[in-house]
TrEMBL record:
Keywords: ATP-binding, Nucleotide-binding. Residues 10-237 form the ABC transporter domain. PROSITE patterns: ABC_TRANSPORTER_1, ABC_TRANSPORTER_2. The keyword Transmembrane does not apply. It holds the Pfam family ABC_tran. InterPro entries: AAA+_ATPase, ABC_transporter-like_ATP-bd, ABC_transporter-like_CS, P-loop_NTPase. The keyword ATP-binding applies. GO terms for molecular function: ATP binding. This is ABC-2 type transport system ATP-binding protein. CDD domains: ABC_DR_subfamily_A (cd03230).
Length: 249
């Protein structure tokens, strides 16, 4: 039922977030359709993580409207339906891969009888087959971040919020992970993925560009190139950020 959701998967109206006494998201209105991979881009400090935290419902000092699959962000009804992967790997280093995933499967409310199949599915999705019994603390950095992704996937969420999931991964792993994101979206899930790597932007269905906590562009990769006349996503991004900086002066 959930994966056939036809309304906006993520929606904010007049979202304002204060952090450390400063306004770091300033009156943000956005609407993200379901079943797509949405890239969240912007300079360091532009508010990407803050926006993600507000959408997941873990950010304090939030004003305005934030809904996920039509429900207010952070409500109990959304807990199983939204997976969040933070920048730092958030799994237990003294447990094995399978122990971590079983734990997150139970946290997401899966009965023990379904947990093993869910764990096996998540391990396969992130390509960690053969590492199930390895203690997470002994995994490589890239493997560890894939365990975090598997922990978010194990409860079969409808929305995945991924904060820079490809940082520190080699090009082969990055390519494979993007292929996984495309598969997850094809199954009807919505993925919001922040990134600093501009060639990854071209693999998204839509792009949201943030600057100083405000939306500079809500576009597609093709439109981004067409409207800026830039030869590639990186230069197009710089054109838009420079334009927004000049307009702000
Ligand atoms: N705990 C905090 N207390 C005070 N200010 C904070 C806190 N966390 C973040 N900020 C500020 O909020 C702003 C937005 O930060 P945020 O982490 O959302 O940016 P970002 O776009 O995700 O950056 P990056 O790409 O570097 O991860 C920044 O100016 C940051 O300094």
């Amino acid at each position: 039922m959930e994966k056939n959701w036809t309304g906006p998967a993520l929606r904010t109206r007049g979202l304002v977030v204060e952090r450390g006494g400063r306004t770091v998201v300033d009156g943000l209105d956005l609407e993200v359709p379901a079943g797509q991979v949405i890239g969240l881009l912007g300079p360091s400090g532009s508010g990407k993580t803050t926006l993600m935290r507000a959408l997941v419902g873990v950010q304090d000092h939030v004003a305005g409207e934030v809904t996920v699959l039509g429900e207010p962000a952070g409500t109990a009804a959304l807990r199983r339906r939204v997976g969040y992967v933070t920048q730092a790997a958030s799994v237990y280093t003294d447990l094995t891969v399978a122990q971590n995933l079983r734990y997150f499967a139970r946290l997401s409310g899966l009965p023990p009888s379904d947990a093993e199949a869910a764990v096996a599915g998540a391990v396969a999705t992130v390509d960690l087959g053969g590492h199930e019994r390895q203690v997470v603390g002994t995994l490589s950095g890239g493997e560890r971040s894939r365990v975090s992704l598997a922990a978010a996937l194990v409860g079969d969420p409808d929305v995945l919020v991924l904060d820079e999931p490809t940082v520190g991964l080699d090009p082969v792993l990055r390519r494979d992970l993007w292929a996984t994101f495309r598969t997850l979206a094809a199954e009807g899930r919505t993925l919001l993925v922040s990134s600093h790597v501009m060639d990854e932007a071209t693999q998204c269905d839509r792009l949201l560009l943030l600057r100083d906590g405000a939306l500079v562009a809500d576009t597609t990769p093709d439109e981004l190139l067409a409207t800026t006349g830039a030869p590639d996503a990186e230069r197009a991004f710089l054109v838009l950020i420079d334009r927004a900086t000049q307009e702000a002066r």
